Amino acid sequence: MLDAHALLTQAERQCQTRGARFTPIRRRVLEMIATAPGGLKAYDLLDRLAAEHASARPPTVYRALEFLIEQGLVHRIESLNAYVACPCPEHAHGFQLLICRACGRVEELHMDEVGEQLSQGARQQGYRIERQTIELLGLCADCHQAASA
Questions:
Q1: Best exposed site among 25, 53, 64, 147 by fewest CB in 10 Å?
Q2: pLDDT tens digits, residue range 83-128?
Q3: CB–CB of 139/101 below 8 Å?
Q4: Is 140 part of any known ligand binding site?
Q5: Nearest residue to 133 via CA among 66, 71, 77, 72
Q6: pLDDT tens across 10-56, in order?
Q7: Cα 52 to the chain's mean position, in Å?
Q8: What pTM value is reported for the model?
Q9: In this predicted model, which residue has the larger pLDDT, 131 or 42?
Q10: Number of folded domains in the chain?
């Protein structure tokens, strides 16, 4: 599980260094995502945020998510249409997401050579990659062990 306090502190420092505004709403959205056991969907975030801020609307959440993604603090899980906090936002290279289909746990891998090989193959075909999302669906160690028992 992520240390949400440490992640928020790191996010504040990173935004300050970059001159990006880490507003209270952006901070709260990141905190909600970081403390969730798996990914959170935008409307789940909206429901939680609306309980605290009556003025929260979908654009509020989507703008916060867009900012957090741009800053490398959050990843979008394409297959689930959900969002997960990045445990190491200082890592500027590619990543892969391991998603447990049983419990929803999400772990991040950093196999930069995989991303580079894909980019190289795309360049050879004349493509310019703008974004890579690699998601691996399976069972985490705990769920695999429980299924085997």
A1: 147
A2: 999 988 776 667 899 999 999 999 988 888 888 899 899 999 999 8
A3: yes
A4: yes
A5: 77
A6: 999 999 999 999 999 999 999 999 999 888 999 999 999 999 988 88
A7: 22
A8: 0.86
A9: 42
A10: 2
Does residue 100 have a known ligand-binding role?
yes
Residue 90 domain-assigned (yes or no): no
Residue showing tokens 């440490």? 6
Residue 114 domain boundaries: 96-148
**Tokens standing for 54?**
């009556």
Strand 106-109 and strand 96-100: the pairing is: antiparallel
Question: What's the number of CA atoms in the CB half-sphere (13 Å) around residue 116?
Answer: 5
Specify the length of the chain in residues: 149
Alpha-carbon gap, residue 136 to 149, rounded angstroms:
23
Owner of token pair 């190491």: 88
| Residue whose entry in the numeric block shows the structure tokens 């901070």 | 27
- 91 within a domain of the structure (yes/no): no
